[in-house]
Amino acid sequence: MKDFTLQVDSSQHGVGIALMQNGRPIEFASKILSPTQRRWAQIEKELLAMVIGLERFDQYTYGQHVVVQTDHIPLENIMKKPPNQTPRRLQNLLMRLHRYDCEFQYLQGPNLLIADTLSRAVGTDSSHQIPDLQINSISTIPDPMLTTIRNATNPSDPPAVHH
């Protein structure tokens, strides 16, 4: 299985996240920032976008290697600093990242088109948020080898038992 890629971006009013695998999107998410979060520094919003993305897609990201792509280069330096040399809010967000196996990667803004679009499309009024919906679906892809094994180990006519 290939690693997952999480593209994250934040704007003045929201964050946008795209979960990708093999260069193809799997899921998208966006969130309107609260009035308090809107006053945060940009580096804090970008780190918040990472945390929201990893936690929102926990069923994919926990226990897997995840490449987190962001267009905010100062995050690279924050990740290298000891926790006691970062502001308190960043410390709290960084602690939430510790449960994930992440590799952080800088990508120029135009290359994060999906996450950037989602972060700007959230609007500004959090009072009209649509509640999150949880949709689960399972589908299978036919596998000829698996079918052969099943047919060999589970014949359609069980052998007769003779007493």
UniProtKB/TrEMBL annotation:
Residues of the Reverse transcriptase RNase H-like domain: 2-100
SUPFAM superfamilies: DNA/RNA polymerases (SSF56672)
Keyword Ligase: no
GO molecular function: endonuclease activity; hydrolase activity; RNA-directed DNA polymerase activity
InterPro entries: DNA/RNA_pol_sf, Retrovirus_Pol_polyprotein, RT_RNaseH
This protein's record includes keyword Oxidoreductase: no
UniProt-listed Pfam families: RT_RNaseH
Protein name in UniProt: Transposon Ty3-G Gag-Pol polyprotein
